[in-house]
Amino acid sequence: MSDILDVAVRLAAVFVAFLVLPLVLGQTEHKVMAHMQGRLGPMYAGGFHGWAQLMADAVKFAQKEDIVPAGADRRIFQLAPAVALLPYLLVLVVIPIGPGNAVGEFIDAGIFFVLAVLGIGVLGSLMAGWASANKFSLLGGLRTAAQLMAYELPMLLAAASVAMAAGTLSLPGILEAFHWWWVPWQIVGGLVFFTAGLAELQRPPFDMPVADSEIIFGAYTEYTGLRFALFLLAEFAGIVVLCALTTVLFLGGWHGPFGADGLGPVWTLLKTALLAFVVIWLRVSYPRLREDQLQKLAWTVLIPLALAQIALTGVVKVVIQ
Amino acid sequence: MAIPGSGLAKGLAVTLRTMTRRSITDQYPDVQPELPPRTRGVIGLFEENCTVCMLCARECPDWCIYIDSHKETVPPAAPGGRERSRNVLDRFAIDFSLCMYCGICIEVCPFDALFWSPEFEYAETDIHELTHERDKLREWMWTVPEPPALDPAAEEPKELAAARKTAEKLAAQQAAEAEKKQEDEA
Amino acid sequence: MTGTADVTALAANAHGFLSPAGVEILFLLVGIVTLGAAVVTVTTKQLVHAALWLVAALGGLAVEYLLLTAEFIAWVQVLIYVGSVVVLLLFGLMLTKAPIGRSPDADSGNRWAALAVAVAAAAALVWVVVDAFRATWIDLDGAVQGSTKVSGESLFRYWVLPFEALSVLLLAALVGAIVLSRRDIDGGTKKQPGTTGKAGKADKGGKH
């Protein structure tokens, strides 16, 4: 019986994190972005510096009418937000936040699981883009798919480098094998992974699929109310997942300068938060690239860098053995 | 050519620096904004100076100034003199739903009856109520800031010079009279 | 949980078809769903729906791998087929022709030939698998037989030659794709495919 209880508690914890962290991140984005632009951001909801703004947004979204366009493919249109959101929930289950057993569910081929399931999220955008019966949506879907060709390969290669270094595919296993000098050793791979991850999440400067000034809101143009909110939640959950994943793979997860035993989860969360800040920071600082510029960046910069990182990893690995 | 990526770093630095500075947003309904001293918020009317010459109403590009008046005859100042007629203002209203705040009325007023006031909180829920009558325009007159002081070495304003001249003349006359009286008494 | 494990162990000992364990029932059910999705994939007249049913079929296959304890293969299946191949398929559909609703002209005239080929292929595969494994049972309680370590060891110890041969084949396909997608090669300019000339505008997609 304690087995079931244990699993239930773990899943509940992951679910709570899945609901809370994206909200915290969204509020942070509101505020950080505002201050980086010399504004204040939300100030009213909740009283103190608008801390409840996203909850107010959620209430607003819940009240809105759920519209399905007349020409849309009804079922697929309604299913798409779930397909976009669920993969991130699944990925969050396997990310270790502390030493020992502090992980939702141990999976042997953790990296593969994470990358595979993250790839499914793209299907949600594609389904939404196609089923909306809207040309802007279709363009957004097309751009989403085109983008996949740019980020998928460098992301896999960069992750493969870490797996080579650690000699395992499991995320807790990688953290067990981590030493501090892995950070400089794998830094190039980390940068490639993070950049490719940004492209996967369609975050600026790689937000061509949702480019609101060109194609309204890409695949999400026709969505209203809760379904739209689910897409937004998917975006923020995606940021949390990407940052946590980069932390685990390249920044040593729960390892810290001191107190690794007790403070493990704190270190993980701290590094994740730092990376999330960088994601927001990049959004504020850089203009949007074109789709072909992303392809060029990926195929002429990211992939060669990732391959070089793999070569370096192999050489160092052989030398220290 | 600089180091590759230095432009990217510069962009990041700009946003980070901005974040550490105070934001420039005014929290208006909670905190009153600090307006520049000569803010052109609304037009105030100093009725006493108005002679109903209608210049403002005629020059207004939007025709948003409404003026009604009638003539009154004033009894002669000195017995046996001629009766004078005088314009009396009945209505002076500005429709601020039409006004485009060009300020031409203020510029053309030859008698300094119209002024810019920094007051700006006069929104209404009905567009008809934006036509403000003379009493309201007069209230705004009291919010008009004092005219800026003259330069230290500036010439005296014409009005003051004229008034002083008259006063000096009067004083000299009185002094002369008093002297004459003293001489007579002596 | 412990109850199920006991039943599994019993079934593994007995190997009886008449007393299926929970895992076996699940395997069968998922298999039926996968088969159903696959059939719908080839019979539906809505093109994009067909691609999405393909996702269901491939996902069902991944679950089957998982139930056979081949965890690594399962995730690779999801990563490559669901995450990339189907997305490319959808991309292609959207680029060319993806109407919402039925497309009456989607029927192929040689569907009977296709059916025959499919049945023949399925029969050959089933025969090979049944002949190879016959009554082999996976011991669910023992060491995991499909883990990354085991897969990697068998792949790089016993199957290196086929692995490398496949790699060469894929590389040849890649080079071929690049050659086909570059129009400036066969024309007046005598550029070699290997030279690092400025890439054409249209070949970015074709490379993948």
TrEMBL record, chain A:
Main localization of the protein described in the UniProt heading: membrane
UniProt keyword annotations, A-Z: Cell membrane, Membrane, NAD, Quinone, Translocase, Transmembrane, Transmembrane helix, Ubiquinone
Record field: transmembrane: 79-98, 110-132, 153-175, 181-199, 228-254, 266-285, 297-320
Any GO CC annotation of this UniProt entry: plasma membrane
Membrane disposition: Multi-pass membrane protein
Superkingdom to which the source organism belongs: Bacteria
The enzyme's E.C. designation: 7.1.1.-
Any single biological process term in GO: aerobic respiration
Localization in the cell: Cell membrane; Membrane
Coiled coil (UniProt feature): none
Protein's UniProt keywords contain Transmembrane helix: yes
InterPro entries (UniProt xref): NADH_UbQ_OxRdtase_su1/FPO
Record-linked Pfam families: NADHdh
Signal peptide: none
GO molecular function, one term: oxidoreductase activity, acting on NAD(P)H, quinone or similar compound as acceptor
Reactions listed under catalytic activity: a quinone + NADH + 5 H(+)(in) = a quinol + NAD(+) + 4 H(+)(out)
Enzyme class per UniProt: translocase
Function of the molecule: NDH-1 shuttles electrons from NADH, via FMN and iron-sulfur (Fe-S) centers, to quinones in the respiratory chain. The immediate electron acceptor for the enzyme in this species is believed to be ubiquinone. Couples the redox reaction to proton translocation (for every two electrons transferred, four hydrogen ions are translocated across the cytoplasmic membrane), and thus conserves the redox energy in a proton gradient. This subunit may bind ubiquinone.
Family, similarity comment: Belongs to the complex I subunit 1 family.
Quaternary organization: NDH-1 is composed of 14 different subunits. Subunits NuoA, H, J, K, L, M, N constitute the membrane sector of the complex.
HAMAP family in UniProt: NDH1_NuoH
PANTHER family reported for this sequence: NADH DEHYDROGENASE SUBUNIT 1, NADH-UBIQUINONE OXIDOREDUCTASE CHAIN 1
Protein name from the UniProt record: NADH-quinone oxidoreductase subunit H
Protein's organism: Streptomyces netropsis (Streptoverticillium netropsis)
UniProtKB/TrEMBL annotation, chain B:
Binding locations of [4Fe-4S] cluster 1: 50, 53, 56, 109
Localization: Cell membrane
Classification via InterPro entries: 4Fe4S_Fe-S-bd, 4Fe4S_Fe_S_CS, NADH_quinone_OxRdtase_chainI
Pfam families: Fer4
Residue ranges of domain 4Fe-4S ferredoxin-type in the record: 41-70, 90-119
EC number(s) reported in the record: 7.1.1.-
Binding site for [4Fe-4S] cluster 2: 60, 99, 102, 105
Main localization, broad class: membrane
Oligomeric and partner information: NDH-1 is composed of 14 different subunits. Subunits NuoA, H, J, K, L, M, N constitute the membrane sector of the complex.
Protein name: NADH-quinone oxidoreductase subunit I
The organism of origin for this protein: Streptomyces netropsis (Streptoverticillium netropsis)
TrEMBL record, chain C:
Compartments in which it is found: Cell membrane
Any GO MF annotation of the entry: NADH dehydrogenase (ubiquinone) activity
Record keywords: Cell membrane, Membrane, NAD, Quinone, Transmembrane, Transmembrane helix
Ranges annotated as spanning the membrane: 25-43, 50-68, 74-100, 112-130, 159-181
InterPro entries (alphabetical): NADH_UbQ/plastoQ_OxRdtase_su6, Nuo/plastoQ_OxRdtase_6_NuoJ
Keyword Protein biosynthesis (UniProt): no
Region span, Disordered: 189-208
GO cellular component: plasma membrane
Biased composition (Low complexity): 190-199
Catalytic activity: a quinone + NADH + 5 H(+)(in) = a quinol + NAD(+) + 4 H(+)(out)
Keyword Cell membrane: yes
Topology of this chain in the membrane: Multi-pass membrane protein
PANTHER family (alphabetical): NADH-UBIQUINONE OXIDOREDUCTASE CHAIN 6
Family affiliation: Belongs to the complex I subunit 6 family.
Role according to the record: NDH-1 shuttles electrons from NADH, via FMN and iron-sulfur (Fe-S) centers, to quinones in the respiratory chain. Couples the redox reaction to proton translocation (for every two electrons transferred, four hydrogen ions are translocated across the cytoplasmic membrane), and thus conserves the redox energy in a proton gradient.
Protein name (database record): NADH-quinone oxidoreductase subunit J
